[in-house]
From TrEMBL:
It comes from marine metagenome. This is Nucleotide exchange factor GrpE. Residues 1-22 have a biased composition (Basic and acidic residues). Belongs to the GrpE family. Gene3D superfamilies: 3.90.20.20. InterPro entries: GrpE (IPR000740), GrpE_CC (IPR013805). GO terms for biological process: protein folding.
């Protein structure tokens, strides 16, 4: 009976060992499943991380492109403002020049008229006997000439003495050239 009892203990021990072994196998299988799940989760995290990194790179690329575009637009705006300022200054200068020199051609043409009037009055000899109406006409022309000179002076046109003076291009206009040893 001892033998049977011992055998039954052995069987019980083996059963216990088998149970322990099967529980270890089950635990190992469940651990293997956990390991697989962990590996899959790590792979998913790595792929998510890679995807997020590429998204961040794309966002950073977009930000740099937008910053570059902003800089280009700022530069273009500054150039446009400078161009507008130059245009405004040019317009103001043209306006001032137009006011200052706008009557230049008119004054030059009027001077021709004044010169012709002076030549006509100088051509009349004072020796001749003239009728009173002719003398009145001459006096009237002298008054017109005097008023003409006054109006020109009022608008800044003054007579410049140039006879027997050195030529100054700031004041004189060359009408013709005459050789002489008198001036240098």
């Amino acid at each position: 009976m001892n033998k049977t009892h011992n055998e039954s203990k052995n069987v019980d021990n083996q059963d216990q060992d088998n149970d322990k072994h099967s529980s270890k196998i089950l635990k190992n299988k469940s651990n293997e499943g956990d390991v697989k799940k962990t590996k899959q989760a790590k792979k998913k995290n790595v792929s998510d991380s890679t995807e997020k990194t590429s998204q961040v790179k794309n966002v950073n690329d977009d930000i740099s492109k937008l910053n570059e575009e902003i800089e280009n637009l700022k530069e273009e705006r500054l150039r446009t403002l400078a161009e507008m300022d130059n245009l405004r200054k040019r317009f103001e200068k043209d306006k001032i020049d137009s006011i200052r020199y706008g009557n230049h051609n008119l004054a030059r043409d009027m001077l021709t008229l004044g010169d012709n009037l002076s030549r006509a009055l100088d051509a009349i000899s004072s020796d001749e006997k003239r009728s009173e109406s002719f003398n009145n006409l001459i006096d009237g022309l002298k008054i017109v000439q005097k008023e003409f000179v006054t109006i020109l002076e009022k608008h800044g046109v003054k007579k410049i003495e140039s006879i027997n003076k050195k030529f100054d291009h700031n004041y004189h206009q060359a009408m013709l050239e005459v050789e002489t040893d008198e001036f240098q």
